[in-house]
Amino acid sequence: MNPVSTALRAVAANWDRMIDGFHRKPLPVRIAVMVVIALFFYALPLLRPPIITTNSIDFGGVMFGVVAFALVALGLNIVIGYAGLLDLGYVGFYAVGAYTTGVLTAYHGAWPFFLVLPISIAVTMVFGVVLGAPTLRVRGDYLAIVTLGFGEIIRICLVNVEWLGAAAGIKDIPHPPSIGPNPEGPFAGKKGLFDIPRVQWDGIVPSLDWDHATHFLTFGAGDAIPYYWLLLSVVLLVIAADRLVKASRVGRAWEATREDEDAAELMGVPTFQYKLMAFALGAAIGGMSGAFKASGQGGYINPQTFPLLLSMLFVAAVIVGGAGNRWGAVAGGALVAYLPERFRDINDYRLLLFGLALTVLAIWRPEGLLPPRRTRRVKAAEAEIEAIEEGELEEGAHA
Amino acid sequence: MPDTTTDATADTVTATKALLEVDHVTLKFGGLTALDDVSFEIREGEILGLIGPNGAGKTTCFNVMTGVYRPTSGQVRFDGTPLTKMKRYKITKLGIARTFQNIRLFKSMTVIENVLVGADAHSKVGFWDALLRTPRYRRTEGEARARAAELLELVGIKARHDELASNLSYGDQRRLEIARAMATGPKLLCLDEPAAGFNPAEKVKLMELIRKVRDAGYTVLLIEHDMRLVMGVTDRIVVLEFGQKIAEGTPAEIRDNPAVIAAYLGVDEDAS
Amino acid sequence: MHFDVLFNNLPAFTVGGLVFGAIYALIALGYTMVYGVLQLINFAHSEVFMYGTFAVAWVFVLLHGTDSVSWSLGRAIPLLLVALVAAMAMSAGIALLLERVAYRPLMKKNAPKLIALISAIGASFALSEAMGLRDRFAGWFGLEDNLSDYVAKARDVYSNPVTIQPHDLFSVGNYSVTDVDLVVIGAALLMMVALDTFVRRTRFGRGIRAVAQDPESAALMGVNSTRVVQVTFLVGGLMAGAAATLYMLKIGSTRQNAGFLLGVKAFTAAVLGGIGNLRGALLGGLVLGVAESYGSAVFGSQWKDVVSFVLLVLILLVRPSGLLGEALGKARA
């Protein structure tokens, strides 16, 4: 074993130990820690801590992209991580959600965002059911290619259907309604209910920057931070819902189906229905993420926003984080969205490095950065058995 | 071979009604006839043994009963309801549960979760119940957990309820399979070679467990290789050979049946 | 809908479809063999093909120069043969590299299939990007000027300087079949027959089939499964190299991201025919090529890809294991 892999192993072990330690803490402590972490993330784009802040591009915008990815990863985690269905066309659902919002709020209608949001989710869900009902009956491996095809079909339709704006896409999608008066320009005057300054760093010396204050709560073209807050809140809600559903009969049925579909069916689990439910729920969350993306800061979507490549990134996010663990999915989504933005300085090489990182990670830590705790328990048990077997072999050799 | 279910013990059992009827079932895979016009019934409250040499069609027969295979002709009826074309999970809901010859637990789930999956078979809890934690959810979940704990106690692995299923010993995995099947609330419990790989002491314990299960009100179908186990625990036995039923009767009758002896002698070394 | 367009030019669309179908089929072999043996989708196989297309163009640049000329097929044949060897070597090399770097460490750990797919996706990104950044790599060694014919404008379309002018041979209906059409289809069929014979008749072929059927028993019977997997990747790479040559013969230009869509199509073809089944890959490729060609005639070429994916879904619904079934392990593969 070479020193590098030994060191990596040590890092991984410490990391796992830290997570386990957290889980052993009493509930109030855990809740307090979670609240502090959540608050930190709300404040992050204002705190602009050195090193992690992206300097060449708007940090708030990057953070919006990060939470949007995290939300998508949460949805895809239900499909891949819980139900074990490989969906390579998830970007299709993302696009359906975004376009439903674009069409209804701007292109063919002028409905308010918060009315269109549930409609977008419902429409995406219908797409999920329509795609899933025939394909979830075929073997799991084929689902990958069928969904890949679906993602591509959606993109081609977007490019070619005039009614959906064709290649030019949809512009001027309205933002979610602001609270307080609207601003005229970016950072112009005191708008919204009140202003929150950002932190400026001179080396390690922080100071408040009132010139670039965020208006609470104004969804305009100049500042991405309010969108980030909105979407972060949605992510937290989805995490809570995910937790409730996963720890119930529904979650068990998914897991049993993933582990052994025939056995699950014979234990009374209507496996097809549950797979379809996972698929539709995953689609709905993807659609929701798309709706927020469409009405985001730019208010602009076109077919190029939804390349098939994005599907690969989504899957990568879930697996990198650790399929089956919602926190892993969130972390994976965040990393996959964040790292390429942070390292824009080496812009040209970032996809190359990303690809290499994926491969290295898959080989070094196949269970992902934050695997479900039980995966680690299985691993630990396997290692133990292996050690015992090796010991026995050696003893046998000595005897 | 004529049926020989006419002695005293059998008569008392006949008094109870048939729970599962296998009615002239034939199953063909391409040109191969796996089951040839097999008929027998399982009566309420009994332990029925299904035996036969390797490749006799025991597991196939079992799979037809639990809906894994559809019979080419003939019918399987449970409680009078034909099982033809019924979805597998519905058959389970109707009251047939099974274990697997080659253990098929949900390996990455804990012991109790495995049993809970079984217990969920009759649950009406859906997505919204789970999301909103409705009273129905709380009630069902509570009942399921209590039931699961009870069953783990019964099969004797309660202490290990939080282990991962894959970390259990081989014997405990078999016990867990029985608990998981029982959790579905079956009227008929089908055990597919539950003693495979057990040592004699474990087999004795298993026999006790099977009796306990029957005494708890379940009807049991036992597929088994081990003659001593089958003879010791069953009320009646059906013998298959080459996909055909060659005998049916009490253990004593089967032991003396020349056709059964012929089928086993020199044919199967497991028939000890 | 323009059914009249299709019916009036049926031979043209059929031959055009068969030409692309033959190329799909050759690439599909790589997917189908790896899937048959390892049950995993070698997502990076598209890059194996893409590297082959560059090898072809480079051979022409090296041996002919960068002057744009138009040659007949006959005149180009010597260079094409050199290019074929180079492309097969290049693709096979990339395939073996993939096996060594992205798969073998995972197979050793017995990692889940999903992880292997991620590793493959990562490798696919890296390979495609590495090709798109070849000017930078040359720059690291100060070679960008010496190699500018090969690496300049690395992210743009890279064309074979020699355009091969097809010549009409004979007419089918109102379409004249060209020598290029025939060479592409004929060469693809020849490769398929050779591979089929290899898998059915040789010791390695038996090993591949044995591992596909039951890796554990195969290992117990003394089959070196690592070796078998290597050979599988090698053969898939060789076929992709051949496909790359035919593709360059037909299309004449390539790009660092040219592999992706072709790879998806080829995988579709493999599934269509029955994944793991070599003859299925051929049939799937041809059916897909023709269906796409007809579809683009009827609905317009922008809907070409939609037609092929809808076809895939329909076939999977009717025949979930593909047209010919999944059968690398079976004797008839």
From TrEMBL, chain B:
Protein name: ABC transporter ATP-binding protein
GO molecular function terms noted in the UniProt entry: ATP binding
Native organism taxonomy: Bacteria, Bacillati, Actinomycetota, Actinomycetes, Propionibacteriales
CDD domains to which the protein is assigned, alphabetical: ABC_Mj1267_LivG_branched (cd03219)
Domain of life where this protein originates: Bacteria
PROSITE patterns: ABC_TRANSPORTER_1, ABC_TRANSPORTER_2
Keywords, comma-separated and alphabetical: ATP-binding, Nucleotide-binding, Transport
Sequence ranges assigned to domain ABC transporter in this UniProt record: 20-267
Natural source organism: Nocardioides ginsengisoli
UniProtKB/TrEMBL annotation, chain C:
InterPro entries per record: ABC_transp_permease (IPR001851), BCAA_transport_permease (IPR052157)
Membrane topology listed for this record: Multi-pass membrane protein
Key words of the record: Amino-acid transport, Cell inner membrane, Cell membrane, Membrane, Transmembrane, Transmembrane helix, Transport
Transmembrane regions: 12-36, 48-65, 77-98, 110-127, 231-252, 306-328
Subcellular location: Cell membrane
Pfam families assigned: BPD_transp_2
Family stated for the protein in its record: Belongs to the binding-protein-dependent transport system permease family. LivHM subfamily.
Protein name: Branched-chain amino acid ABC transporter permease
Organism: Nocardioides ginsengisoli
Native organism taxonomy: Bacteria, Bacillati, Actinomycetota, Actinomycetes, Propionibacteriales
